[in-house]
Amino acid sequence: MSTAAPRPTGANDALVGSSYPATEAYEVSAAKIAEFALATGAASPLHFDRDAARRAGHRDVVAPPTFAVVIAQRAEAAYIEDPASGVDFSRVVHAEESFRHHRPLCAGDVVSAEVHVDAVTHRGNISMVTTRAEITDADGLPVSTVVSTLAVRGEGA
């Protein structure tokens, strides 16, 4: 009889190092920026007032830094919805998010994101999944990098 602990259910670590194709183009609009800013309590006039944003050197209103998660989560969905991932979204708890911005997201930007599966670590009956979404503009230039860690609870967790 083996004394080894059973392998936890959850994310498939064989997908570490894989990536998913870039999402369809997403157009950042002033209305989406304003809605997000209101929902998150971001009160800077740069998010609402085009003239204030232009005076600050931007071409249009600027998204709050965490707005990039809207785009990153669209890309992450390709991984989560892939049956090979082993992820049951009803068992997912968001654990951590970090952002590296190469430039601000502004109204009028057209961006897409490619998601990479960077790590899967099993801790007891929980799989910790780290993905990285690389957001680029229509010219393929980097805009933001969003790193997300999800806890995928296995059966009984």
Strand content: 25-35%
> Secondary-structure element sequence?
EEHHHEEEE
Low-confidence residue ranges: 1-8
- Count, helices: 3
CATH class: Alpha Beta
Q: Could you give a short account of the major beta sheet?
A: 6 strands, antiparallel
What descriptors fit this protein?
single chain, 157 residues, alpha+beta, Thiol Ester Dehydrase, Chain A, 6-stranded antiparallel sheet, 6 strands, disordered N terminus
Description:
- This protein is an alpha+beta fold and 157 residues long.
- It is built from 3 helices and 6 strands, in the order ββαααββββ.
- 19% of the residues lie in helices and 33% in strands.
- The chain has helices spanning 30-40, 50-55, 68-80; strands spanning 19-20, 26-27, 92-101, 110-123, 126-137, 142-153.
- Strands 1, 2, 3, 4, 5 and 6 form a 6-stranded antiparallel beta sheet that branches.
